[in-house]
Amino acid sequence: MMRRYWEWLGLNLGKHAGMVGTIGLLVTLVLGIGLFSLHFSTSNSDYLNKTDRAYIDNTRYESLFGGDPMATLITFSPGKTIDDFFTPHNIKLMQSLDARLAADHWVYSEVSPLDAMSITSTLLQSPDGNPFDTPAASIVGGTIGKDPSPKGKTARLNYLGAQYQRLVRVPTDQQNLSNPAWVDFLVHENNGAIRTELQAVIPNNHHALFAVYLQPNLTIAQESTAADSVNAIVATAQFQNATTITTGVPAVLKEIQSYLKGGILVLGAIAAVVMVVILLLLFNVRWRLLPFAIVAVGMVWAFGLVGFFGIPLTLATISALPVLLGVGMDYAIQMHSRIEEEVVLDRAAHPVQAAARGLGPALLVVTFDAVFAFAALWFAHIPVIRQFGSLLVVGIVAVCVCSMIATLAILGIREYKSPTRGKDFSHGRLARIVVWLGSLSPRVAVPAAVLSIAIFVAGVALEGKLVLQTDPIQWLNPHSQAIKDINALKSASGSDNELGVVVSTNQPFSDRTVDYVVALSHRLVDKYPKVLYPPTGIVNSLDQVLAVPGASEVPPTGPQVEALFLGSTPSIQRTTSAQGGQALNIIFRTKTNTLSDLVPIVNDLEHEHAPPGMSVAPGGIAIVGVGLLQNLASSRVVLTNLALLFVGLWLVLRLRSVVRSLLSLIPVLVAVGAVSLIAIAFGIKLSPMTAVAGPLVVAVCTEFTSLILLRFVEERNRGHEPADAMHVTAARTGRAFLVSAGTAIAGIAVIATSPMPLLRDFGIIVALNVGVALLSALVVLPPVLVWADDPKRGWVSRGMLRPIPEPFEFEQPRTPEPASAVTVPGGAEGAFDDVAVDPDRELVGIVTDGNGSAADHLASAQEAAGALQVWVAEHAASETAPSTPEH
User: In order of start, what are the domains of the chain with their CATH numbers?
Assistant: First the structure.
């Protein structure tokens, strides 16, 4: 029944090519409207599930303390230091910036060096000029009695004495920020180091930082707009003896947003050029660029449907266009080549019908191979990968339908109007290469299969040794201005990232709460000194003021912290506490961007057992990255195995044999195992995008292995012995296989031209593995199939051989008169050498001796023979070039 359906398509699509073209144009126009509904999605919900703890914790954290941070790096001119920065002009500028940023609706809070200095000044400045009456002296002095160690008591007394000596050197009337000597006292410890409580905004003597926190839970598009707004405000400030760079996570996300909008088109254009070159150089057929034109229309169908279904475009789906181009080209190339094979080699009476009957069912099989492989992506833990799977499933179905219908219709009418007269291509260069690749003796079949399984097992065993590139900065274009600015920020300040921690309590500003915040902060810094800087927070700031080298740890009291909070600027209050002190913020600047270094810290926080009445949760952009990394780690292997399982089960059902299914998957196992082996051998850090590599490799490779197996069965059905059947398969399909393999690999390899390492590394590793898989399919599969279908076994063709049906006709033709009975004026009986159409009849195919023109003599033939209808007859091999009508 299925073959009859394909015969009907092959006969009627070309016969009604005009109608098919009109309908196809309308479908293209309608689906093209969907292109205007395409949208880019770039929020945290693309990378984390809304039920993930990381998503829940970060959403709450941002609602309390604001969204992603931006930082303005202030670099002082040569010869100038932080002591010289607070001039009246610069102070006025910072006050103006504070006011303008606070009024910007994109900004949640901002903390300037002026804000930080205000806290220190409040603590270290005496209201009556007596150095011992400063709040800091009073608080530190109060800790002397609490220090349990005599050595600690002595250290605190000595510290206060040294502070006193420094303070009295600055007259009371000169204790203002315009005085470098006063700034020096406020900023530096007795030993000249930057005070710990100021290091978040004054990391060293030559730089200062202006922190801006955007509104919570913005999308990347919104953050891009917010970043532009902040940049525009900061750019108006021209500090004396200093320059500025404004950067941060929003600036990086804006870079991604910009690339998303243009990158997909650039990659698609490069892929198009490469594929056109491949077709021009290797695909030696008539209208060799037709497959590309058809697949281009298929792309309109695919992405139009994507738009109508509301599937968003993301950083992951940007690679879909070149992938679909490469994989989709296979359908059009295979059908195009098969039609010309039927014309040139088999000289079929109905070549398009024969091609549709022979290849159509196989193309449906491989389409579902790809659909089931891509469907495995729906089980990913990451929304963006699930969206990528949906896009690929919709896209591959649309491209397949377009490729088969358009190819049959266009070549059907072409062969009807202008039959192909080519030479035997089964002995051409490409065919000989494929024959040679598959020429291994069947005796190597078992060792080759065992080796393939061994490579797969080795790859799975070494999976745990693979190293993912977990530094987000290394995912992006290193030559972009955003990344240059981020690197400048890190080089100057030692950090470009932060990890937030919110401590929730039902006892705000109590001694119990303050003691816990201090203990938690110290424990994390002591445990992860190579990752975390000392934290920033209202509790932490006062704790750091009280910390004296050589003294015991004495935390501040709750009332002391509350007093400091109430005396702070509104910006600092919004950044450090919320809900009336029931939520306290601890901000850790990190010394690394590598998300894997933050994983154990996040795990510790998620499993932290806070005292009764309190809870702890991480937050900030770092927790989003860690959550993404954890989801990637849990998805990569699972997705590959699911793709193998889904495709394997589909092939068992469709091929009605477990053995045939396993034979098709042998080259796939090589490719899957090779991912790990190649990465380890060359020390390659895998891009997080390789989470989707397994299903892609499975889809592309099983597409080829299924076509090879089904064509082998078709040749066995024609009576060829296994070795001959494989030889014929390789010779006849070699051209199509190599060209379509080239386009498939090119479609993926083009991603390697992306300036973003995240995509570039993905393109390299996946293209390499697809290449290995296809080479394995052409080298390993042929001897395995020949061995498996030996008469003693018959595992491949058993149950699949059936009589070859006659071409399906929809009107019962009248029995034609013998050719000798045709009388043609001019003595040219039976002398037609071409094809003609009787406008009142079905297509007429005439067997001739090559001495006349059917078009010239049809009218005479009709007069002589009446309403004669002559149906296409088979040519003997010795006769001249046959007519190849198709209608």
Answer: 1-37+283-414 (1.20.1640.10), 425-490+620-799 (1.20.1640.10), 813-887 (no CATH)
